[in-house]
Amino acid sequence: MSSQSPAPAPTPGPAPGSAWERVQLARHPKRPHSLDYIQRMIAGFQEIHGDRRYADDPAIVTGFGYLSDRPVMVLGQQKGRDTKQKLHRNFGMPKPEGYRKAMRVMELAAKFQRPIITLLDTPGAYPGIDAEERGQAEAIAYNLREMSRLPIPIIVVVIGEGGSGGALALGVGNRIFMLENAVYSVISPESCAAIIWRDSAHAEKAAAALRLTAPDLLKLNLIDGIIEEAGEGAHAEPDAASFNLSQTLIRTLDELAPLSPDQLIEERCKKFRQMGNFFEETAFPL
Fold first, then answer.
1. Which element (helix H / strand E) includes 219?
2. CA distance 13 to 3
3. What is this structure's pTM?
């Protein structure tokens, strides 16, 4: 049984006028986080904890349940709502044990042939010394490699901030979607402005240059679709955003269901190899 009541979604409101406004909406303090969507979409959700190597990382939530009577494995990056939750969730910035927990759960999904849904919402992987000492970069790289060859459907959705490798470590999928006001970028606008202009106050200008909004990334063929948000955004209409998300997931799982494991892997690898444009020119005529 699905926990989501099949009510029609309200008509989407006008889109924000700039990339910076979408960044602000993606960071809105009342914007739904992963657990908010899981509670609305996934029936019988059972959380799985720990990487069985070091610890449990609350910045990544994993578990299994049912999406419209279909068994699925769900992984999401979780930010906190108040100060206590933010500290507990480390502001949504995962550590190596979080990525290793995610990989353990994805391998479990592959063993039992359950499709994987990942919800991306992080400013980036935690850059602290303790995380680096435990192999932050290695954990991210390992996930990228292993996700590319899992023999099951993987659907990725950016629900808020998709920050650099911290998001990409859960972002290798057969289909990639973004909520209308989500952002996905290799660097935050503030950090980009601090590097380019030596002043983070130029973040608005950097946001426009980074092409980090859903329409920008769809135009660049880096994502497969945009999930509409109603009214002023998902923070104002969380039920409608959840409904639109669940319908997209159900439809996409139906599309991927006929593919064999080899086809899923081949399609996923081909998708990422085609990202970006590369040109080779010789400095001098031969």
1. helix 214-219
2. 26
3. 0.88
